TrEMBL record:
Stored InterPro entries: AAA+_ATPase (IPR003593), ABC_transporter-like_ATP-bd (IPR003439), ABC_transporter-like_CS (IPR017871), P-loop_NTPase (IPR027417)
CDD domains reported for this sequence: ABC_Org_Solvent_Resistant
Domain ABC transporter: 5-241
The keyword Manganese is annotated on this UniProt entry: no
Molecular function via GO: ATP binding
Keywords: ATP-binding, Nucleotide-binding, Transport
Species whose genome carries this gene: Streptomyces indiaensis
Domain of life of the native organism: Bacteria
Protein name as catalogued: ABC transporter ATP-binding protein
Amino acid sequence: MGVEICVEGLTKSFGHQVIWQDVSLTLPAGEVSVMLGPSGTGKSVFLKTLVGLLKPERGSITIQGRDITKLREHDLYEVRKLFGVLFQDGALFGSMNLYDNIAFPLREHTRKSESEIRRIVLEKMDMVGLIGAEGKLPGEISGGMRKRAGLARALVLDPEIILFDEPDSGLDPVRVAYLNQLIVDLNAQIDATFLIVTHDIASARQVPDNIGLLFRRELVMFGPRAELLTSDEPVVRQFLNGRMQGPIGMAEEKDAAQVEQELAQIDDSPRVQELTPRLLPGPGITRPPRWQAIARSEAQLHQKEVAGA
């Protein structure tokens, strides 16, 4: 079962540059959450802070009753065992075949026998659709296969939290669609807590239970998928609809009067933020606890529609 992550008042700076400040949110246990935001808003920095690779200036990150920002290195190492991370490029060792890449964490961090390691590695490779590619080197396979191999490696220690750093980067739309289905299916099978950093709006509309948006050094919103997809917040609507009119500019800063003028020219009467159908687990995968999140999200949307009627 996944674990809840509670973030309170988190602030991160590099020198005098504030990356984001006073970020507070709760990632519900066992659910899929997505963090969006324009380039340069510190989404990847947020992931590294969650796993303890970067230390914030202020705030807390509570996991299983422990604030990881205050832990000593030895204790932090124990908490990190809860995490699996899929990096943008898969972060595979180029000189190792896929089997050895995926087996690496088991050989480094456990005392399991090679026969037990083989069972686990083949099980995870099967989960991501890589059976038969054990002997291939990372340089011999496609970007999509490298992502899946990186994901299999992230799974071998049976993490309760999985962080995805732009898993769709460098992939064509078809491979992104396959990867999204794989993420939804995996969440249904292993019931871990997922947090995905992405720029892909189609993925953000289809995959998660919860969505957040970072902009101008702040967390603009975080909440159930339906709440964000139907939000009247200008920056949320601009980002989710991929349009130029709104607070986000090429340099991220726009004059307030210009923003107001642009928004006044937009015809939102058809309400472009209609809900995209949710991506559901594939055939044969049992209904996971995240269906509770689906029901909660749809109930909130219904309440919003009734209130606006």
